[in-house]
Amino acid sequence: MLIATWNVNSIRTRLSQIIDWINQVNPDILCLQETKVMDESFPVEAFEELGYYVEVYGQKSYNGVAIISKIKAENVKKGFYGCKDFDQNIEIFINQKRLISADFNGIKIINVYVPNGSSLNSDKFGYKINWLNCLASFLDEQDKKDELICLMGDFNIAPANLDIHDPKKYEGGIMASEIERNALNNVLKNRLIDSFRLFEKNTGHWSWWDYRNNAYELNKGWRIDHIYISKELSSKLKSSVIDSSPRGNLRPSDHAPVMIDLNLKDINEDFFEDEDNFFEI
DNA sequence: ATGGCAGAAGCATTCTGA
What we know:
Blueprint: E1 2-7, H1 11-25, E2 29-33, H2 44-48, E3 53-57, E4 65-69, E5 74-78, H3 84-87, H4 91-95, E6 99-104, E7 107-113, H5 123-144, E8 148-154, H6 167-170, H7 178-188, E9 192-194, E10 208-209, E11 221-222, E12 225-230, E13 237-242, E14 258-262, H8 269-273
Parallel strand pairs: 1-2, 7-8
Antiparallel strand pairs: 1-14, 2-4, 3-4, 5-6, 6-7, 8-12, 9-12, 10-11, 13-14
The structure holds one DNA strand of 18 nucleotides.
């Protein structure tokens, strides 16, 4: 089962590239970020024609997340819920559409677009850390239900120096600071692991290249898009890769898709053998 | 220290991103 995440930086501008990629890769679940479109304007039909269900949580111009899936999503939730920080009802948490979650055969897919944070001395940075703290308490709640989790998306954080092409240059700065890394580790705790690092221990693997300064051509990138999975799923993981090829497209997103291949057959064989659980054209 | 590049809104230029 292929599960992918991709910050597409506008669903409307990138639609044909996304369709091409789906036809090429055939993912079972695709989590999108920065769709930048209100729900009623999301090009749902383009995905339905390919046999996918679509769940969207968007807004005008900024942010926006979506889940495209061959299996119908269950228990779809938009935004944070059931966690103590969200109960404070912080308005900005509601206004910025950055999280959508859904269950697929007992696995909870959580698709996030973590705030960028601008720079460490800005108000936006405080919002980023608050948002991550809220995500941590959201996951604490999920923990109590003993669910298998796949937390994926654009985290806007390089977890380690080897996830940055020039770590010295960016040391302590935005996406590389200890404050952000600690906040991220507090989300992951001991329950979620970085799927990519189960296979690849070396530097030189990037999921984002700045549009500026020929960053892609010079391969000056960062690894800030991640797929974290519950420890219990690690034995089911067949691969975790970054597909950098779409970054070479004409008018590309600045992010590349990341995907895992999960062997879920033995978790619930009946579910996957029941054709009613899949999309019918 | 700053700008560089891209998208959306909307029609000149600003805001935001990373």
